[in-house]
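Supplementary Note 3. Input sequence used for the single-chain structure prediction.
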Amino acid sequence: MIRFSDTELTRNAFLGGRLKLWQPRDGYRAGVDPVLLAASVPARAGQTVLELGCGAGAAILCLAERVPGQVLTGVELQPAYADLARRNAAENDAALEVIGADLSALPPDMKQRQFDHVIANPPYYRPGAHSPATDKGRRTALGEQTPLEMWIDVAARRLAPRGDLHMIQRADRLPDMLAACTGRLGSVEVLPLAPRAGRACELLILRARKGGRAAFRLHAPVILHSGDRHQRDEDDYHPAVSAVLRQGAAMPWPGTR
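The predicted structure, written as C-alpha cells, is reproduced below.
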C-alpha cells in the first residue's frame, strides 16, 4: 500500500483548529500524546529538529505550529504514513522533509547529519505485551519491533553536542529508557504524566542531553485532568494542559537547566 485514499482518511483538528491533519480512519490515529511531546520541546526558530517515527506528522507539525522557523525532518518506516506526513505538512504550510526509512538503517547521508533536537513517540508495548491490532499500521505504531534501546541510540548519534532528546513513553518502560541513556546521554529529566491527582502515572516524558552532566531529576507529575473522576460528557483537562492541547502553549516543565 503506497498511499491512503481519501475515503480511508479523516481530517482532524489539533491545537484548537490551528493545525488540521489527515489521519487513517482505521489505522493509527494520533491522540494527545504527540501534542504533549511537542509541547515539551524548548526549540527556537532556526534550530534543527528530527522526529524518529513521525507517522502522519502530528508531533513535529504541532511543534512547527508553536515555534515557526525551524528546520524539520521526519523519519517514517511505513510508506503510506510517510506520504501522509508530507501531505499534512504541505497543507499546513510547514517545510517538513520526510525520509522513508527504518531508523535502524538510515540512509548514509542521514548518518552525517546532526540535530539540535530529536523527538520520538516509540511504540509503547514490548512484543507479546498486548493484543496486536488487526490493522497493520496501528500494529506497527503500537507494538515494539525495533528495541527501545535502538531508538535512544539512534537519537544520541543524530544529536549535535548539547542537543536534547524528548521522548514520550509508558511509565513502566522507564528502566529501559534510563539503561539506554547510560553512556549515551546525560542530564536526564523525567516528567511523569498522571491522569488525575492521586492516580498512578501512566506516561512520562524523558528529556536527555548529549554531553549533559547534570544529576538525574524526577519532577512532580503533571496532572492531566481536573477532579478525582470524570463527571460530565466533556473533557476536563487541567487548565495548563488544556492550554497545551487547545492553544498550542508550551508544556509547563518545572525549572530550567
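The longest strand covers residues 159-170. Confidence is low (pLDDT under 50) at residues 137-144.
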